[in-house]
Design a protein that fits this description.
The structure holds three protein chains of three kinds.
Chain A (H helix, E strand, L loop, with lengths): L4 H7 L13 H9 L13 H11 L6 E3 L6 E3 L17 E7 L4 H13 L2 E3 L2 E3 L3 E5 L5 H14 L4 E4 L3 H11 L5 E5 L4 H11 L3 E4 L3 H13 L5 E4 L5 H16 L10 E4 L6 H10 L4 E4 L4 H14 L12 E5 L8 E5 L2 H14 L3 E6 L6 H7 L4 H10 L2 H4 L4 E4 L7 H8 L2 E4 L7 H8 L3
Parallel strand pairs in A: 3-6, 3-12, 6-7, 7-8, 8-9, 9-10, 10-11, 11-12, 14-15, 16-17
Antiparallel strand pairs in A: 1-2, 4-5, 13-15
Helix pairs in contact in A: 1-2, 4-5, 5-6, 6-7, 10-11, 14-16
Chain B lengths: L2 E5 L3 E4 L6 H7 L18 E10 L2 H4 L5 H5 L2 E3 L4 E9 L26 E7 L11 H11 L8 E2 L2 H13 L3 E9 L2 E9 L7 E7 L3 E8 L5 E8 L9 H35 L6 E8 L1 H7 L20 E4 L12 E4 L9 H10 L7 E7 L2 E7 L4 E7 L19 E7 L6 E5 L7 E2 L1 H13 L18 E3 L4 E6 L10 E4 H25 L6 E7 L8 H6 L11 E3 L3 H11 L1 H13 E3 L6 H10 L11 H15 L2
Parallel strand pairs in B: 1-5, 7-9, 10-13, 13-15, 16-25, 18-27, 19-21, 25-26
Antiparallel strand pairs in B: 1-2, 3-4, 3-5, 6-8, 8-9, 10-11, 11-12, 14-15, 16-17, 17-18, 19-20, 22-23, 23-24
Helix pairs in contact in B: 6-7, 8-12, 8-13, 10-14, 12-13
Chain C lengths: L14 E4 L13 E4 L17 E7 L7 H4 L9 H12 L3 E5 L11 H14 L4 E4 L4 H14 L6 E5 L5 H10 L2 E5 L4 H14 L6 E4 L9 H16 L9 E4 L7 H4 L3 H22 L1 E6 L4 H14 L7
Parallel strand pairs in C: 3-4, 3-10, 4-5, 5-6, 6-7, 7-8, 9-10
Antiparallel strand pairs in C: 1-2
The chains are: A alpha/beta, B alpha/beta, C alpha/beta.
The complex binds iron/sulfur cluster and FE2/S2 (inorganic) cluster.
């Protein structure tokens, strides 16, 4: 839990000297508390303050980068167990697995697909992240050939999956300079794997039978000089997986067990429930998700779920204000006013589409606040409505002069009528009731 | 000349035939309510003509009065001409109410220590043996009287130019006025004879809708006159944003002169009633919101309403009052309160000063309520502040039968928990016209206590009672039957009214909670809650807590301070040392932007409940409500 | 000793029983108990409380139903009792959620038909039932009374009370021994407020399931997900006004563009994927009952839940 501004303020020198760039120590404390400033900005902190503030601002989960270039994957740096506490930061990477038994052409096809496939939603491109190469044959040459096939068509982040250090080294000799994730070191061969990780400067996944031995192994690797680690928690037993990933996150963010302060990797191809493991991985603390086969519908749903879970809950997604059409509305179609909070917009839009009544949605700028809060904070005011009517030339779009406003903005109805001269109908509070409302109340 | 006799005091005055009753009343020393400036628009200057000949266009202004009132001779004093001897009753509501102000804030008495001094000097005329120049002679005289050292007083040219004549014509008996300004002591006036008893200052609250002026004697601190006035900028837009937009369209000059006109008019009212000369006002102290003070000083406020919302100045400002057009003494100074941000202006700094919250280690919460509200939390060491829009419901706006706190407004209500029969009190005991803020708060609390409404404000449809019924759109509760009211209709409160009230109170409580969260303090740590704003005068504190308008604290910790802005301006006028701490107060405040604070949204929905979704924040209220519920289910 | 999750909680989710067997005066083949958790969902060996359940949603007015959901149901969709019998036998959900959508049509007045439908469905299936009534304050009182009466003794879960219209549904639940779904629009405060309001009508907390409303995957699901997590978190921290089991439905997820516009076999896959990717996360956030409409979603969800619950492929009732 971040410290409160006043708690931080009590640790500050209270000189109000402005050297941190803030007018007073108190405002600086507010920024620190919100993670918007670094404690180093104040040159006068005493040691006690430095330790306390330093500790509360350094991310407890190590940042790891896999791959190079534009598509490189960054994971880690997470701070919380629940996204509502702050936010989850780095989306987990979804790595599509190929094996060294596959013909080069099939590998390339898969890689090109991962490279090029994109789903565009709310102005964002959602993509798969990289390729995992499984050593199934056990032959170093064959593994190197498979890695080579991947490299031939794309420079995507890679996970090299081989337990035999010899096989691993063969793969690394092909792509080691592009920072693949080495998967995975175990108690038996970790020294060798650490040597490779150091030699190529690559992050290293580690794997053990229990969390305790995983923590021990993590300590051993650090002792070998490798501290860019990823913890593999894969299990065909989803109960075990979820309990382990929850424990890792809790131990990490509470700094109880710093040896577990690394991102988590899950191979979802183990138990035959790959959808379920992917879901558990996305929602519950996975950072690198390896999967064998992802049918189209699952792929889309997965990326959408990931986008949902990793949006910043404190920053509502905004819709560009404007006049939106549902169906092909005519001059006597209803006009529904609402705010530019994405959830409000999409929910209403969904129900309007379902109602099959063509209409206009007049979206006004409330800086992404919901109706309730926009009314409370004054972001939704009659002037905003008037300006929007003018700006989007509503008077020329429709022949009537009636505006349907959200139920929660009912207190504004009088003032809107007064200032715009439009008749105001107060709509339902719940978008789900809109079809019925239109059916009962709407007459142009 | 006709004589006008005012009832009930029988004060008399003579005026020329054709003068207005308003002029007569002002001449007789009454502080009339002239909110629209005597244009016949506001209806606040109503009087009852009891006998005698007057001229008043009843047709044109008829809609201000009910039939009853017209029958009693009600007319607008600003629009009524005196044609012969008349007797006129001035209802209390037509007089400027002296606002409750906390000049003596609890535990912090204000010591009289103004920044202006008058010295009556009797100087020896120069001789050949004593040829020192006039000015030195004068300054020495001041020093000898215990004033500042001769070398420490700066004398501006305009004053020096007057000295030789004044000295000689007065036979070397003069009064010199010295003010302490940021540059040091300054000789601001010399007059003939002894005028030391004529030394006044003006404290001004420059509000968006009203201007209030207090004239104070700087000799003994007494209040000599009060004036109030509509802010005439209203003709350029009701609310603050429309004013800024008006300024943007090239109207800054006009707004500036309207601001000074409004202050001048109030100054005139106050000085006329006190019978003093405005030239004897030597200092003007103005507290106002940031945009108002910017406009008064002729500083463009346009950038304040755009991201990143920065004012041009935050620190206090001083200049010569005449430079901005204020009609006071030639060299009199003007002091403008500092501000914190676009939303936390000098009016709030004045509130803080008046509350005395910065003079203790105990933590106070200060709430200034109007259509917008500001909340400040803190103590000597630190302060957080925020501002937001509460909507007008708490002031009686947007409520079907809501009204301002004018005569006829129901200002107190209680319900009999068994019969649901209300008993109420109206302002000046007139027949009820509507409900004002304090009445609405009472009603909300009582309806909740009687379980007529649930905690979201919905009227329980299962109760069958003649006062609870389905209104035109939503259910409603009848507060006063038609034959009780003066408006020929029933006075009801609807479910929509109740919701608007809950939303208003929720923004305020949520702001308080957000500041408390930021500071990480519990309500038990709050030693005082100060209410500022006219609204806070009459409020029932228990009910304000019961509906969750403010956090639950022992009720004796809640203090209503009336118009805190004018109180603070008075304090700064009377005691110059208080002026010095204002910038420090302003600087200490950390402003919290509620919209950028993710917890505000949560606090707001949590507060849209009576008293709050987290019942543990209101343990006393909960105990009380539990009893009410038990009582209801087992009568 | 091994490293395990660290969280410590003081609260517990209340238990809610749906369905009454013969011994309890009903005719269900078994009762379903949900809630009872003392930790986060699926956490602990074994996890605390009861396993999340899958409900299958059907309606008495299929014209309002998503086409993806009824394509494979065929004509049975026109007879809710047929539909329910088929569902119990072939799809094997844990519960059936019957929407009396006909009450939401304009001009609805046929109250007796409502009673008949409820009785017929109770005949046709022995699974515990969730029954959704009207959503119009003008109808609520008679509709809920009718449902309550028709299902008396069967301990159904009645839906839905909202903050603007909760008294009729609560009164019916209390009068006829049923439980109630308390629905609020994606906000922890509003959820809690409704629970307080219901408590104050006299409905005990162990007869309430919270429906914090589930936005469509991709269109607001994240808000619902976090609200569910927050409700569960607050309850475990000891807030008794939030310590009721949660119910979540994928109904909105079937209306999204990606599902609506998919065609042929893709349409089924899309519907199943969207339900899976919203309802399994819902259980991870704390939902005790998840509701789906596509027949092919049930088996997958049940086995995923079973594996999360104890690592097994399935869990017996
Ligand atoms: S630099 Fe340090 S001491 Fe100076 S104002 Fe900033 S926080 Fe305070
Ligand atoms: S009507 Fe406004 S002063 Fe007379």
């Amino acid at each position: 839990m971040p410290l409160k501004p006043l708690d931080i303020y009590k640790l500050l020198p209270k000189k109000n000297c402005k050297e941190c760039g803030d007018p007073t120590c108190l405002t600086f404390a507010m920024k620190l508390s919100g993670g918007k400033a670094k404690p180093e900005a104040c040159p006068y902190l005493d040691d006690n303050a430095k330790t306390i503030l330093g500790a509360s601002t350094r991310p407890p989960v190590r940042r790891i980068r896999i791959g190079v270039g534009e598509r490189a994957l960054t994971v880690g740096e997470e701070l919380v167990q629940f996204r509502h506490e702050k936010s989850f930061f780095h989306e987990p990477g979804i790595m599509i697995a190929v094996t060294d038994m596959m013909p080069a052409e099939s590998i390339k096809k898969e890689v090109i697909f991962v490279r090029d496939w994109v789903l565009t939603r709310i102005g964002t491109d959602l993509r798969l992240n990289g390729i995992a190469v499984r050593s199934v044959s056990g032959s170093p040459e064959q593994f190197a050939r498979a890695v080579g096939a991947v490299e031939e068509v794309a420079d995507l982040p890679e996970v090299l999956m081989a337990d035999d250090p010899l096989v691993m080294e063969a793969g690394l000799s092909v792509c080691g300079n592009y920072r693949p994730l080495i998967h995975a070191a175990r108690l038996l061969q970790y020294r060798e794997m650490c040597r490779l990780a150091k030699k190529y400067g690559c992050p290293l996944a580690i794997k053990a039978d229990s969390l305790d031995s995983l923590a021990e192994l993590s300590g051993l690797c650090v002792a070998e000089g490798v501290d860019h680690l990823v913890l593999d928690l894969s299990s065909p037993n989803l109960h075990a997986l979820l309990n382990a990933s929850t424990a890792v996150r809790q131990h990490a963010i509470s700094r109880t067990t710093p040896a577990l302060g690394y991102p988590v990797c899950i191979d979802t191809g183990l138990g035959g429930l790959s959808d379920a493991s992917l879901i558990a991985g996305v929602t519950k603390f996975g950072s690198v998700l390896i999967c064998d086969d992802l049918p189209g519908a699952s792929r889309k749903a997965l990326l959408v779920l990931r986008q949902n879970i990793y949006t910043d809950p404190q920053k509502p997604i905004q819709i560009t204000p404007g006049l939106y059409r549902v169906g092909t509305p005519g001059r006597d179609s209803p006009v529904l006013l609402t705010v530019n909070f994405s959830l409000t917009f999409f929910t209403l839009q969904g129900y309007l589409e379902a109602s099959r009544v063509p209409c206009f949605m007049l979206i006004v700028d409330t800086e992404g606040l919901s109706v309730l809060t926009a009314v409370a904070s004054g972001k939704l005011q009659e002037t905003v409505v008037r300006d929007a009517i003018g700006k989007y030339d509503l008077a020329n779009e429709v022949s009537h002069r009636t505006l349907i406003i959200p139920g929660y903005s009912a207190p504004l109805s009088g003032r809107i009528e007064e200032i715009t001269g439009w008749k105001v109908l107060v709509g339902p509070r719940d978008a789900a009731d809109i079809a019925e409302f239109l059916e009962k109340e709407w007459k142009p | 000349m006709p004589t006008v006799t005012f009832l009930p005091s029988f004060r008399k005055t003579e005026v020329a035939q054709g003068s207005t009753i308003l002029e007569a009343a002002q001449k007789a020393g009454f502080h009339m309510n002239v909110v629209c400036g005597g244009q016949g628009k506001c209806g606040k200057c109503t009087v009852m003509v009891r006998s005698g000949e007057t001229e008043f266009d009843r047709e044109k202004f008829g809609n201000f009065f009910s039939r009853d009132e017209a029958g009693e001779g009600a007319c607008l004093s600003c629009q009524t001409r005196v044609m012969g001897d008349v007797r006129v009753l001035i209802p209390e509501g037509s007089l400027v109410q002296e606002q409750q102000i906390l000049i003596d804030t609890p535990g912090v008495p204000v010591e009289l220590d103004p920044a202006v001094w008058k010295y009556a000097l009797s100087l020896l005329p120069p001789t050949l043996d004593d040829p020192s120049p006039d000015l030195s002679r004068l300054l020495w005289g001041i020093e000898k009287k215990g004033g500042p050292k001769e070398g420490a007083i700066y004398a501006p040219l305009e004053v020096i130019r007057q000295i030789p004549k004044v000295l000689r014509e007065s036979g070397w008996k003069i009064t010199a006025t010295v003010a302490l300004v940021p540059g040091g002591y300054r000789l601001i006036n010399v007059e003939k004879g002894n005028t030391t008893s004529h030394c006044y200052g003006a404290a001004v609250d420059l509000g968006t809708t009203t201007v209030v002026v207090y004239l104070r004697s700087l000799i003994d601190g007494s209040i000599v006159g009060i004036g109030s006035n509509y802010n005439r900028q209203i003709s350029c837009g009701e609310d603050i944003l429309s004013r800024v937009n008006y300024a943007k369209r090239g109207g800054l000059g006009k707004l500036q002169s309207l601001a000074t006109e409004s202050i001048n008019a109030a100054l005139t009212t106050a000085s006329n009633s006190a019978g003093i000369d405005r030239d004897d006002i030597y200092e003007v102290v103005v507290a106002g919101n940031t945009i108002m003070t910017h406009i008064l000083m002729g500083i463009d406020p346009a950038y304040m309403i755009e991201e990143p919302y920065v004012p041009v100045v935050r620190r206090h400002l001083t200049t010569a009052a005449r430079r901005v057009g204020l009609a006071v003494g030639e060299n009199s100074g003007l002091f403008i309160f500092p501000a914190v941000s676009d939303f936390i202006g000098g009016d709030i700094i004045a509130d803080i000063l008046a509350s005395g919250m910065t003079e203790t280690n105990d933590i106070s919460l200060l709430i200034d309520i109007g259509t917008n509200f500001e909340v400040v939390l803190g103590n000597r060491d630190w302060m957080f502040a925020c501002a937001g829009a509460a909507g007008p419901a708490l002031e009686g706006g947007e409520v079907l039968f809501g009204m301002r706190a004018n005569p006829g407004a129901i200002e107190q209500v209680s319900l009999d928990l068994d019969t649901l029969e209300p008993s109420y009190r109206t302002i000046r005991n007139q027949k009820p016209k509507g409900l004002c803020g304090s009445g609405l708060i009472d009603l909300l609390a009582e309806l909740l206590r009687a379980c007529v409404i649930d905690r979201t404000g919905r009227i329980n449809p299962m109760i069958s009672h003649e006062r609870i019924r389905e209104g035109r759109q939503v259910p409603e509760f009848v507060v006063a039957w038609r034959d009780e009211t003066s408006i020929g209709k029933e006075i009801v409160i609807t479910e929509n009214d109740i919701k608007a009230l809950i939303m208003s109170k929720a923004s305020i409580l949520a702001a308080c909670q957000t500041l408390m969260n930021q500071a990480g303090i519990e309500r038990s740590a709050i030693s005082r809650i100060y209410f500022s704003g006219a609204f806070g005068n009459y409020i029932n504190k228990d009910h304000a807590i019961m509906i969750g308008l403010i956090p639950e604290v022992p009720v004796d910790r809640v203090i209503t301070m009336g118009n805190g802005a004018i109180a603070g301006a008075n304090i700064a006028l009377l005691n110059r040392k208080k002026k010095r701490i204002l910038d420090e107060i302003a600087r200490k405040i950390a402003y919290i932007e509620l919209n950028a604070d993710p917890s505000f949204m949560d606090e707001y929905t949590g507060s849209c409940f009576l008293p709050h979704t987290d019942l543990s924040l209101f343990p006393g209220v909960e105990r009380m409500l539990d009893q009410c519920r038990i009582r209801r289910v087992s009568p | 000793m091994g490293l395990t999750p660290l969280s410590e909680w003081s609260g517990q989710i209340g238990e809610l029983v749906i369905g009454a067997t013969r011994t309890d005066g009903g005719t269900r083949s078994h009762a379903v108990t949900i809630g009872g958790e003392r930790d986060l969902p699926y956490i602990g060996i074994p996890p605390s409380g009861h396993i999340p359940r899958v409900a299958y949603e059907l309606t008495d007015d299929p014209s309002l139903w998503q086409s993806a959901a009824i394509r494979t149901i065929g004509d049975r969709a026109h007879d809710p009792s047929d539909w329910a019998a088929f569902a119990e036998k072939e799809l094997q959900p844990d519960l059936i959620r019957l929407y009396l959508s006909s009450t939401r049509r304009r001009g609805f007045s046929d109250l007796s038909q409502i009673g008949k439908t409820v009785e017929a469905v109770l005949q046709a299936t022995k699974l515990p039932l969730i029954i959704e009534g009207s959503n119009d304050p003008a109808l609520d009182s008679s509709v809920f009374r009718k449902i309550g009466e028709a299902a008396e003794g069967e301990r159904v879960l009645l839906g839905t009370a909202e903050s603007g219209r909760y008294r009729s549904a609560a009164a019916a639940a209390m009068a006829y021994g049923h439980s109630l779904i308390a629905q609020s629009p994606i906000d922890i405060n509003l959820a809690k407020q409704l629970n307080i309001l219901l408590r104050e009508t006299g409905l005990p907390h162990d007869r309430i399931a919270i429906d914090p409303y589930t936005g469509a995957l991709g269109y607001g699901f994240e808000y619902s997900y976090s609200v569910m997590e927050r409700i569960r978190y607050s309850a475990l921290k000891g807030d008794t006004d939030l310590a009721m089991p949660l119910i979540s439905s994928a109904a909105d997820s079937l209306t999204v563009k990606e599902v609506r516009e998919a065609e042929g076999g893709d349409a089924d896959q899309a519907a199943v994927a969207w339900e899976m990717y919203s309802m399994l996360p819902a259980t991870l956030a704390g939902a005790s009952i998840v509701c789906v409409r596509h027949p092919l979603s049930i088996a997958g969800l049940k086995s995923a839940i079973a594996s999360l619950w104890n690592g097994q492929k399935s869990v017996g009732v």
